[in-house]
Amino acid sequence: MQYDPIKRSLGNVFNKNSFLRISFYKLLDLLLLRTWHIKKELKNLKKTLSGNSYFLDAGSGYGQYTHFLGRKFRKAKIYAIDVKEEQIEDCNRFISNTSMSDRVVFAVGDLTMYSEKEKYKLILSVDVMEHIEDDIKVFQNFYASLKKDGVLLISTPSDQGGSDVHDEHENSFIDEHVRDGYNINEIEEKLRSAGFSKISTRYSYGCPGKISWKLSMKYPISLLNFSKTFFIILPVYYLITFPFSLVLNYLDVKIKNKTGTGLIVKAIK
Hints:
- The chain is of the alpha/beta class.
- The protein has 10 helices and 7 strands.
- Strands 3-2-1-4-5-7-6 form a 7-stranded mixed β-sheet, sandwiched between helices.
């Protein structure tokens, strides 16, 4: 299953002006459970991250997390990189028309080669590491780029059904992934080998989250991959399922998941 064609189609609709784009960001914030978990972690870190400091959005994609960081941390300067040039150009056009234009920069960059010695107080990496083969090199670059006591915050699929893979004979729901998900011990060991010693990891997308993900993402994207005509009925579909997804997302964030298809990883230098 490929996300990129769907992303481009949605982008053609929502990137026409700033109002539509920001509305789209807010919709994604509500729909995407990983955003709920990231917001929870950032809220807990707000005092630590306050003041004039540099943040890195490592694998910025649409730019929704860069925009969120810019709104919540108004003194921070944010550097956002991604390998996709067309997305970077699009994000820079958008951000140039906002009040964040003097402290937010998008740039093309490869995380396996990008390092800025002890520059960042926060590095945020949301659903990126599952796309990168040489993850150890990226973790080393993250460690080198963080200031002392700087925070690395990662959201990524787990090996407990991440990418909708439940055994070795199944294929990933998302073609672009190079790994289906991380084992907790695996990712913690890789981070330790990169230099991190203070690491905490927890599951996201537990039982409520898995149901929400199917309702809000898997089923509609499967239909859109089958036929773009489903864009017509998409608003009706979400009108029916959206309230259920909100409740399920809330429950997933509030409870301690014993297992889950996602991981939230925090590592401090």
